[in-house]
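User: Predict the structure for this protein chain, please.
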Amino acid sequence: SNNDVGHHAYKNAKRELRKILDSYLENGKLKYYDIIVTSNLATKHPFFEYARSFDFIIVSDIGLINVDVKSWGEKTFYHFDVPDEHDTEMSNSNIEKVVGHYISQQYHDQFNSSRKSIYTFTETVQPNRVIYDFYDYDPYQLAANNAKALKDHIEQNFNFKVQSTGVIYFSDGTVNIIQGSEERDKYVDTVSTKSSLRRIISEAIELSKHPLNKEQVDQITAIFK
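Assistant: Here is the predicted structure, written as C-alpha cells:
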C-alpha cells in the first residue's frame, strides 16, 4: 500500500488523521487512540498479511479504523465489477462508467472465466495510443477483506468484540477517480476529501456497538508493537 503514496502525501494524511482524532478527544467523542504505522511491522508478524494493505491502523475505544492512503497521479477506473451488477443504477449519460465497464469486460474475457471479478486500472493517453494498466488487485475489495480479517483475528486472540472499518483515502482528491459502483461494503468506505475523511471517522464513532476499555485498547495496540 505504501507504494501508492509519496512521502509528502503520507505525512500529510497522518497529520490530518491526528487533527481529526484529537478534535474528537477534546469534545469527548473519543476517550483514547493510538496510530499504528504498518510500515514498522515485521514480515513475520502474525497480522502482517492483513495489516500491510493499510498505511495506518487507528486503535481506539471505538475499535479499529484501518486507513489506506492513495495518491494516484493518473486517471483511475476504480472498483469495476464483471459481470456488471450495477448497470441499472447507471445512466447512459455517464460515459466514463460505460467505458470503464466495457474495458473491464474486454480485459476479463481473455481469461474465459465465469467467476465474478473486480478490477481497478489506470488510463494513460499517449500520442497514437491509450494504455490501460490493470492493478493485480482491487484496493476496495482488499481493504474490505483485510478489515474483516483483522477483526476476526483480534476477536479470536482476545475474548471481546471489536469493530473494524477500512478506509481508502484518496489524499489528492482532485485526481480523476471513476468509481464503478456506489455500493458500500460494511467493512470499507472510500473518501477523497478531508471533510469526508472526518465524516467517515465520525460515523464509525456514532455506529460503534462494541466500545473498548483502556486495557483492551492497550492489549490490541501491544500486538502491533
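The CA atoms of residues 99 and 108 lie 14 Å apart.
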